[in-house]
Design brief:
Elements: E1 2-4, H1 7-19, E2 24-29, H2 35-47, E3 50-55, H3 75-85, E4 89-91, H4 95-98, H5 117-120, H6 124-139, E5 142-147, H7 151-163, E6 168-173, H8 193-198, H9 201-214, H10 220-232, E7 238-246, E8 259-267, E9 272-280
Parallel strand pairs: 1-4, 2-3, 2-5, 3-4, 5-6
Antiparallel strand pairs: 7-8, 8-9
Helix pairs in contact: 6-7, 9-10
Bound molecules: pantoate (PAF).
Pantoate binds near residues 61 and 132.
């Protein structure tokens, strides 16, 4: 496994792999890797001749009030996990390498970016789309692996890749959960013991919403209320949003029909967690 701090060296390494006939799998991350990332790396390693990992905590996707300076980092542990997963190349640029001067060009994906995470964190998806576009431009033709845990991010990345005709196949991978249902996330580290015990409430709320739809509820407000009630019963959790949308368009269908996605965001004292599940109506 080789690591690269510069754009030029990482780009050259992946060009060399493709010239040798190997397809490239790319796993973009912000580091502090967990088993969710491991599943993305495994998928990239299995389906491609070589797999590459990027580790970059992207300042553009954090608002000034968010956790950029405290975002958890552990490069040595990340590299050990990448090595054991069979990753061939790791890109670990610093901010000066990625953004040597104030950036004047940003990528903004209208529509799918605006609701939910986009409403709660207005500049977030422009930051994500911009850095992912840069990473795709640096990596070149590849398959790129993203977790469904960030379902709206996945939709933003897919739309951006298709609109800009980038030579990348975006692959979504299922959410990996702890045994009590909590979706794995680097931000789970912000939870204290009591909050960690309370955090599976997100998954419980989503399952309650799904059950309502499976039992025939077709009114989005009623499904939202079912999920909100589950969250409200947990004193340490504060609901940010609970929503049900069409999985492709992020529009709320009335009545609920087709391939739907239930999504929730919940605040604890220091952590804001998101989760989602799918259901057919
Ligand atoms: O999901 C993440 O870790 C980040 O948002 C991503 C896609 C690596 C962009 O910084």
């Amino acid at each position: 496994m080789k690591t690269y701090a510069t754009i030029a060296a990482f780009r050259e390494a992946l060009d060399t792999e493709r010239h040798a006939g190997r397809a490239v799998g790319l796993v973009p991350t912000m580091g502090y890797l967990h088993d969710g990332h491991r599943s993305l790396m495994d998928a990239a390693v299995v389906a491609n001749g070589v797999a590459a990992l990027t580790i970059f905590v992207n300042p553009l996707q954090f608002a000034p009030t968010e956790d950029l300076s405290t975002y958890p980092r552990d490069l040595q542990r990340d590299l050990a996990m990448a090595r054991s997963a069979g990753i061939g190349h790791v890109f670990t640029p610093d901010v000066a390498e990625m953004y040597p001067e104030a950036i004047a060009t940003t990528v903004s994906v209208a529509g799918v970016s605006s609701a939910l995470e986009g409403a709660s964190r207005p500049t977030h998806f422009d930051g994500v789309a911009t850095v992912v576009a840069k990473l795709f431009a640096i990596a070149g033709p590849c398959r790129a692996y993203f977790g469904e845990k960030d379902f709206q991010q996945l939709a933003v990345v897919r739309k951006m890749t298709s609109d800009l005709s980038l030579p990348v196949a975006v692959v979504g991978c299922p959410t990996v959960r702890e045994s009590d249902g909590l979706a794995m996330s680097s931000r789970n580290v912000y939870l204290n013991d009591a909050e960690r015990a309370a955090a599976p409430v997100l998954h419980r709320a989503l399952r309650a919403g799904r059950e309502a739809i499976e039992q025939g509820v077709r009114d989005a407000a009623a499904v939202r209320a079912v999920m909100a009630e589950v969250i409200a019963a947990e004193p340490l959790a504060r609901l940010d949003y609970a929503e049900v949308v069409d999985a492709a368009t992020f529009v709320v269908p009335a009545p609920l029909a087709g391939t739907l996605r239930l999504l929730v965001a919940v605040r604890f004292a220091k952590a804001r967690l998101i989760d989602n599940i799918g259901v057919l109506a």
